[in-house]
């Protein structure tokens, strides 16, 4: 008969993992939580970066039309809607993330938010004759190197004085942006993440 000290205690029931979530940090739905599903490459924009972005933009986006082209959790798009954006279009191609975005929209009562299951690049290129956004937000998966293609597509749906927000794993100097017709208005860095607020490159005719 084994000694009592050698008897292994019965295994404890496994605890369910706490759901990952991200909080909206300003506006109507401040402190509301959005789920962060466990999906490869999903990397919500950190609170500190979102706070900086909306400090740059101003806290009141009333009347703005916003596109969150690689929505993921929807943190950027819902944040814009929370701060008064008249319309926020969230594009996402992963069906499980699309379902989560629809659920968040319903829970918040975010009637100004439209969720579409779509490839962002294809959607922007096809919508170029009808879309006219004040702000296009680009946070594509870093490993796919979609940055330049996304910037080019975003310009097709951006109104002339509109802005582009870009998150990237590298710097984007003026020498690289200028051939795309873009220039940096503001920029920052948080760890390995570089983030930029971009506008159309000014030409003598626009001065």
Report on this model:
- The protein is of the alpha/beta class and 207 residues long.
- It is 26% helix and 27% strand.
- The protein has six helices and nine strands.
- The protein has helices spanning 47-57, 75-82, 95-108, 120-126, 147-156, 174-177, and strands spanning 21-23, 33-35, 65-68, 87-92, 113-117, 133-138, 158-168, 182-190, 193-200.
- The strands form two sheets. Strands 5-4-3-6-7-9-8 form a seven-stranded mixed beta sheet, with helices on both faces. Strands 1-2 form a two-stranded antiparallel ribbon.
- Residues 1-19 have low confidence and may be disordered.
Characteristic key phrases:
207 residues; 26% helix; globular; 27% strand; two-stranded antiparallel sheet; disordered N terminus; alpha/beta
Low-confidence stretches: 1-19
Structural class: alpha/beta
Tally of contiguous helical segments: 6
Strand fraction: 25-35%
Mean residue pLDDT: 87
* Largest sheet data: 7 strands, mixed
End-to-end separation in angstroms reads 91 Å
Number of separate strands: 9
Bin the helical content: 25-40%
- Strands of the widest sheet, in order across it, are 5-4-3-6-7-9-8
Shape: globular
């Amino acid at each position: 008969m084994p000694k009592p000290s050698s008897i292994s205690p019965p295994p404890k029931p496994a605890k369910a993992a706490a759901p990952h979530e991200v909080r909206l940090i300003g506006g109507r739905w401040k402190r509301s939580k959005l789920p962060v599903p466990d999906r490869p490459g999903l990397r919500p924009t950190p609170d500190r970066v979102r706070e900086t972005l909306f400090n740059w933009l101003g806290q009141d986006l009333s009347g703005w039309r916003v596109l969150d082209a690689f929505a993921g959790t929807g943190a950027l798009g819902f944040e814009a809607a929370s701060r008064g954006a008249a319309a926020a279009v969230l594009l996402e191609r992963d069906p499980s993330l699309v379902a989560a975005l629809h659920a968040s929209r319903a829970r918040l009562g975010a009637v100004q938010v439209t969720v579409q299951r779509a490839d962002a690049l294809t959607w922007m290129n096809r919508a170029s004759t009808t879309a006219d956004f004040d702000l296009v937000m680009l946070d594509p998966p870093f490993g796919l190197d979609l940055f330049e293609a996304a910037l080019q597509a975003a310009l097709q749906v951006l109104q002339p004085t509109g802005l582009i927000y870009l998150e990237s794993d590298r710097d984007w100097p003026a020498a690289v942006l200028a051939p795309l017709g873009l220039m940096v208005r503001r920029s920052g860095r948080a760890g390995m993440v570089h983030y930029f607020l971009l506008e159309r490159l000014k030409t003598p005719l626009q001065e």
